[in-house]
Amino acid sequence: MSTIRPEEVTALLKQEIEQYESQLKLEDRGTVIQVGDGIARVFGLDNCLAAEMLEFPGGVMGIALNLEEESVGVVLLGETSEVKEGDYVRRTGRVLQVPVGPAVIGRVVNPLGQPLDGKGPVNTTQYRPLERKADGVVYRQPVKQPLQTGLKAIDSMIPIGRGQRELIIGDRSTGKSAIIVDTIINQKSTHQTDTPVFCVYVMIGQKESTVARTIAKLEEHGAMEYTCIVSASASDPAPLQYIAPYAGCAIGEYFLYEGQDVLCAYDDLTKQAAAYRTLSLLLRRPPGREAFPGDVFYLHSRLLERAVKLAEYKNCPKCGAHNPFNPNHPYEQQEIFNTCGACQSSLTSVAVTRGGSLTALPVIETQAGDVSAYIPTNVISITDGQIFLEGDLFYQGVRPAINVGISVSRVGGNAQTKAMKKVAGSLRLNLAQYRELAAFTQFGSDLDQATQRQLTRGERMVELLKQVQYKPVPVEVQVVQIFAGNLGIYDKLPAAQVEACADALVAYLREHYAESLHELSATGKLDAVEDKLKAAILEFSGKYVPAAD
Ligand SMILES: Nc1ncnc2c1ncn2[C@@H]1O[C@H](COP(=O)(O)OP(=O)(O)O)[C@@H](O)[C@H]1O
Ligand SMILES: [Mg+2]
Prior knowledge:
binds magnesium ion
């Protein structure tokens, strides 16, 4: 018969007591002391984090923006009317984040990642924070691969590289959004290559009808297969419009860190800045120039700094750390690139992984072409160049209405294909000269032959660079069309027939010289096929009979 041993029982009891865990859950809660205009002041959230998500009754979410001594200023991401004074507010302990991953592709979501397209929930378990410190210079490499927009005027004169930030700026209705939509459509061909470009189109403060029309257009051209739309429309609360670009960037960063290429378009940041101004004024932050708060520069700089061409990297087999591998970096101690920064083990035999890229196309709307207003100058100084669209050109029928004189791309030239660089090298300068001459000769009629020739050529080139919407042109076609222009085959035609002739040329080359075109597109170099193409273009020019009108 077994006997009960008291010491065994006490030992067991002690063990139980030690392992006792109370089922009580500590929760940080505060109380709403004031609410209105999308802002709530909350008392009692002493440990609240900056930009932490807070939950109000009824599932309304808020972001803690102002951490003050007595209270926390919260912007509400849902209906203000659902929140009342005295309501409890719960801390979530999480800073703002969005669902990311391949599942968001093809979807239309709001800045919180909630679907707006009625296609059910976004099926992903991965999240990324909206706000992140941008990668430092050691993690980056120079931009050198082109991001083709498919627009002749841009790819030839203001080329954009993968990882670049290029501003699109102009008055309302000058075709800013059209450039973005065309660029997204043009990325379709990259999905047949081994470096596809995924797209995130952030639409801020636009009409819902515009959003719907854009989605329909993208769907029509099969572009939603690799695109995610983040929309905070004009009727959404200001806080949603404020966080929308960060959400889009976070969604893009998922692909970036998978070693892929992403294009993020923010259309437009003027409206985001206005939304942020609204919030700041309601939070009683001191207003500065044009009533924007003092940190409005930081609003855009921290977003656009996240555009990057990542250096190649090596993943440490021991500790899994992500080590940039930059053998061309002008750093004296090259061996640091072959040593794991975290555990110091050697990485010499580890394979190099491709670094992804995130290209940013922010949009800014100006008033009456005034680029020297506060927000335009801010964003011009943050980006690597700007595409300036002009109302006058737009109404004259020069579309895309790019002002070549003051549009620049400060890094894209390195990313241009050799062939394009060769044929388009002098295009910018010639067009600028043509504009000036044209303005000057409006008054006189007596022109010497050289001037006359320059005017004729300029006019034909302007015609050649006009392009309708939703018809992006592959880069090799752009090259031969511009090459033909340099050879002067359009000069003898009336300006109105340049487009038809350029199209006929491409059809002719596709029929008779397909292999040269193919080589041009495969190598991106003109040298090997230049003579052959030149002969072919002249041959075409000899045979071409313009359609009578
Ligand atoms: N290249 C183009 N050719 C013809 N129409 C264009 C072109 N680009 C834009 N448009 C038209 O101009 C209008 C304004 O364009 P949109 O891109 O919405 O301007 P923004 O975004 O600058 O306000 C639209 O109706 C659009 O269809
Ligand atoms: Mg627009």
